[in-house]
Amino acid sequence: MQHTFTIAKREFTSFFHSPVAYLVMCPFIFFAALLFLLFQFQPQQPAEMRNVFTQLVWLLVLIAPAISMRLVAEELRSGTVETLMTSPISDTAVILGKWLGALGFFAVLLSPTLMLVITLEIWASPDYGPIVSGYIGLLLVGGLYLAIGTLASVLTRNQIIAFLLTGFVILLFTIVTYFLPRVLPPRFGELAFYLNVNEQYDAFSKGLIDTSNIVYFVTAIAMFLALAVKALETRKWR
Amino acid sequence: MIEVRNLTKWYGPILAADQITFDASAGRIVGFLGPNGAGKTTTLRIITCFMPATSGTAKVNGHDVFTESHQVRSSIGYLPESTPLYPEMRVEEHLHYFGKLQGMKRTDRVRRIDALADRCGLTNIRRRLVGQLSKGNKQRVGLAQALLHDPPVLILDEPTVGLDPTQISSVRDLIVELGRDKTILLSTHILPEVEKTCQSVVIVAGGRVAAQGTPDELRQQVSQQTRVLVEVQANPMAAKEALASLPQVDAVETNDHDGWCRAAITPKQADADIRTEVAACIAQQNWSLRELRHEVASLEEFFVQITSEQAQAKAG
Question: pLDDT tens-digit profile of B299-311?
């Protein structure tokens, strides 16, 4: 466990040494503020963040793969994976540490949007319940996307491929599962609808923390991380 | 310390290591020598638990690399080929990070890093970014990192590649010094390095162990005999005749070299030194002499011979 945090900490700090971090951060903050001004900070609008949140979730489709693409792929390319994997640590510690580090960076990425909440507080009196649940939901969605990205990053040493692969899988969970119910028989349609990330996130943006939504995200994250651990193990056999 | 038995590794259809067997006993520096692509790195990666072998076993410090991988990894200090390091970290951070992964406590790490900075010559670059270091300094950082947890076994994959001559000799000195109390497996394709630093040598070629033993033992196995080389001012035919008539001489080869006759004289007895007899013969003939040299087969010739035999065997 201690190793997991050691790796997570290194991963987290290394984000700030790379230009990618700032290239991800700037558009994210810019679009978050823009969405806030266009959809939320308007006369007659309720003092909430819901519209911003539902739009930001879409932005994560691009942001999360950009964060996660280098996690393991970079180590595979530069060869540092050799010193890392010959240290007495488990594969699980490596994957979990990398994912936690990325999640930490994502949390930092989200933090400037608190300015928007403060703006709301200055001009009106927002209800903090849905705002807090919205942030929890965003962290879960981000966590899921980063877990997918971690897996993709283990599979290839090429960061662009890792980025595209992550984006592709995320689209399966967002756009494909959104349109699929229209062509599938109702029973399967329901299943596809259940797998849709945006559908699962909706409750959080409304201020609803439902166990079923949390179970969805936690199991999906656990599944992708477990796959990443297995993928890292099988790398040795090839 | 290190026991390798029948280690075989297939990369898909390619056989990278074929039945490799050798030992490295405690407190020895073992040179792992071979041309590029001989299977050195593959073998080292299996010993360091980076990847499993297709068949065969390897034990380090009594622990099997496959079933007791954690113990093996704690007892090995590994410097991979080309010294991969994180460029965005500072030297000290880098060492602390790997110290933590080895499970070292903070006080231990600080003490150890201070000691190693001195020993590996990192004192002036402790706060520098790894990415901005020269190749030689990176190598030192990699070496310090391998030594961090004071492992009984050190595995160094081509530690002197890309260094300038002074750096090479300083790294060599460090290795010899470390070899006093550690088992070191040193992979290289540079022969003088092995002759200068190692107490025993394993030569691999084409994925197989071609020969092993101490450098002296290997030198004795060289099939080419010792020779005496002379350069005299004489007619090649006459020189050949005169030298071949000596009772100790088996064969003479001569050739003309800008008016000088160069002769290679092979004695009948493989390790005999016949310089005095040759000199007497030349003096008797009254030829002017500009070179007289006793040539002992070098490990280099042995290496070339062995590896080319292997290459031919593989091709045939």
Answer: 777 777 777 776 6
